Amino acid sequence: MKKFKNIGLIIFLSCCLLTTKFSGAQSRAITLYKGIVINHSVTIKNKIYHFEGADSLSDAPIVIEGNNITVDFNGAVINGGTDYENPDKFQGTGIIIKAGRNIALKNLVVKGFKVGVMASGVTALKIINGDFSNNFRQHLNSNRQTEDLADWQSYHHNEKDEWLRFGAGIYLRNCDSMDIHGNTVTEGQCGLMMTNCNNGLIYNNNFSFNSGIGIGMYRSNHNNILYNKIDWNVRGYSYGVYYRGQDSAGILIFEQSSDNTFAWNSATHSGDGFFLWAGQTSMDTGDGGCNDNLIFSNDFSYAPTNAVEITFSRNKIINNILHDSWHGVWGGFSYNTVIANNDFSGNLSAIAIEHGKDNAIEQNSFSDDKAGIELWSNPKRPKDIGYLQKRDTRSMNYSIRNNSFKNEKNIFNINNTTDIRISNNLVSGGILQQKLDSTVKNMEFDKTGDQVKPYNDSSFFPKLTFKITGRNAMLSAAHPKGKKYIMMTDWGPYTFSYPKAWEEKTDSTGKIYLDMIGPAGKWKLLHIKGASGPSAYAGEFPGKLTVQKDSTALTDIDIEMEYKGEHVISPFGIKYKKGAPYTFHYRKFDIPFKWQMKWFVFDTTSDPLKHPAQFNKIINSTPVKIANGPVLNKIFGLGFGKNIARENVATVAEAEIDVPGGFYRIGISASEMAKVYVDGKLILENWDPAKLIYDADYHKDIVTPLKGKHTIRIEQAQYGDYGMLNFVMQPVYKSN
């Protein structure tokens, strides 16, 4: 009897162990640790992991390599840098995926790194439902009054991964047949960046509100980019002040990227909505280009520069919305390009093409543009690059048919162009206005006026079929739209996900008009410094608020407010639940500088690098010119003239300040060299032209404590004629 009892116990325990082992195999998730290498399918334990980013982008706390691997991160958060209010200090890569096949990442959050996820040499890579927001982005030096040229980017080369200096949410090289969908990258500098990546599918992602690029492609072909939200990827813009975009774009296509399809995406409010350039290879050899790309049924409206820019290439732009931009289409040196069935409205110039050839502009709708179609060439343009030497770049052979023009200030502006066929175009809301001169040859002008009935040729429309479920990526009717809603902060475009008091204007009496914008909710005033007489002490979003600046020379305003309403995502990605209090500020700081600037000229005997002692004698001698004013860059810009060349020139500027105690960010952007002194002590130096490789290299800044009266002295010297001198001094706040 005892024997049978023991056998039963053994059987019972064995069953329990087997059940426990089986159950654990089904449900157990692993915990990540720094240095882990994942080479098989696994589920990750859902928690927050803090792994500080490495100095090198080639090192990562998590590495994935092998074949046929699925890693479900199960909502886990991989967090790099903890100083989240200084994303320009983020470094390292969160996850590196090494060469392999059929690797899938799902349901992960990576933030606080220079690069969120980097993959190289992976075939059939899948990245699904990830969030790679709040990774690296540069601090912007441009402000609402002044564009700083050091903020310009350049994406023209990436053979050696030069793009990595801007970071990325996702960075891919040599990854063919990838599937990237359901992902989010916001409030970084670059979203998805790809080099040598072919036959991929990128859809249903949100790459919006970044300070550089939404999607970037370099030497990448046969990809389908569909149904993506790519709005507000922008920098270099201040409403009504400057609008050059500084090489930002919703979609960037560079260097021999061909046969791609871009359809049903929204890339509005970006520097360029769509920015395509053939590449340096074509510039040097005249061969290749970014050709045969289809740009279909997208919205590229409200671009500070060009809704669509396509240059030195052959493409199709069909059925897109192109509203309220500098140019609807800028098509310099485009050839065999079709621009058909697009909706142009409110642009400074709807279509502008220099040196274009064999292009069709048909079945488009134009309304309320200042200029409809502009075609021209410069016969005297020097052929100083390979493309111009090897290609026929005359402006010629255009078909302009079946378009409608309504309320256009000037419909045609054409010169130095031949062989143009204009026919069957409807003109309404005004007379046919055109600017043509004797340089226009062989133009056929037929059936264009207010009695014409254009017809549609369906052959322009492509037949696209994809085995995916695409979402509606377009902005909702209720979402703010228009270039006035490109509202730049120190770190990038405002996202509408948190409350903000945005200055509309300050009148001559010092009255400040604020727009209260953000999620629906209520605000109340907690504290006010440097201003008085608020028009209200509480209110709702959206709303208005006015205050009166105190009658002091120094502007030092800080209005602290509390918001309660919808859920909030702060400027640095911190989430607040619906109804939770959220503190925000309106701040304005302006020192009443009284600069005195002196100009000096140096030569080989007083070269600032080779003969510093002699150079110092020069800048402490009698200047060739003296000027005074409150804004340093304006004095500098107006200083050059007949007696002062832009080359081999130096300036010395001085001003007295009186500031409240605190930490201040002092920055200088200069061509080519600069030194900043406070009370005779050198605190900031950028005095080596050999290190000036990229635009950002022309800027240096430092945080330093200051209080009371001080003397600021800036020494600047330049060999060339680049011409830039911007100085910024702002308090460092703990939170925005």
Distance, first to last CA = 78 Å
Low-confidence stretches: 1-26
The 3D shape can be described as globular
The percent of residues in helical segments reads: under 10%
| Largest sheet descriptor | 33 strands, parallel
Radius of gyration: 29 Å
Q: Which structural category do the helix and sheet elements fall into?
A: mainly beta
Strand content: 35-45%
Give the overall average pLDDT.
94
With helices defined by DSSP (H or I, 4 residues minimum), what is the helix count? 5
Number of strands: 51
Characterise the protein shown here.
Residues 1-26 have low confidence and may be disordered. The chain has a 33-stranded parallel β-sheet that branches. 7% of the residues lie in helices and 42% in strands. The chain is mostly beta strands. Among the domains are: 326-464, no CATH class; 497-588; 595-731, Jelly Rolls (Sandwich). Strand 42 and strand 43 form a beta hairpin.
Which labels suit this protein?
single chain, 736 residues, mainly beta, Jelly Rolls, 33-stranded parallel sheet, seven-stranded antiparallel sheet, 5 helices, 51 strands
Question: What is the element layout, followed by pairings?
Answer:
Layout: H1 2-27, E1 36-38, E2 42-43, E3 48-50, E4 62-72, E5 77-79, E6 93-106, E7 109-111, E8 115-120, E9 122-123, E10 126-128, E11 168-173, E12 179-181, E13 190-195, E14 201-203, E15 213-218, E16 224-226, E17 249-254, E18 261-263, E19 272-277, H2 280-285, E20 293-296, E21 306-311, E22 315-318, E23 321-323, E24 327-330, E25 338-340, E26 343-345, E27 349-354, E28 357-362, E29 365-367, E30 373-376, H3 386-390, E31 395-401, E32 404-406, E33 412-414, E34 417-428, E35 434-436, E36 441-449, E37 500-506, E38 511-529, E39 531-532, E40 538-549, E41 555-565, E42 568-569, E43 575-576, E44 582-590, E45 595-601, H4 612-619, E46 625-629, H5 632-638, E47 649-670, E48 673-678, E49 681-686, E50 699-718, E51 725-731
Parallel strand pairs: 1-4, 2-4, 3-5, 4-6, 5-7, 6-8, 6-9, 6-10, 8-11, 10-12, 11-13, 12-14, 13-15, 14-16, 15-17, 16-18, 17-19, 18-20, 19-21, 20-22, 21-24, 22-25, 23-26, 24-27, 25-28, 26-29, 27-30, 28-31, 29-32, 30-33, 31-34, 32-34, 33-35, 34-36
Antiparallel strand pairs: 37-38, 38-40, 38-41, 39-40, 41-44, 42-43, 45-46, 45-47, 47-50, 47-51, 48-49, 48-50
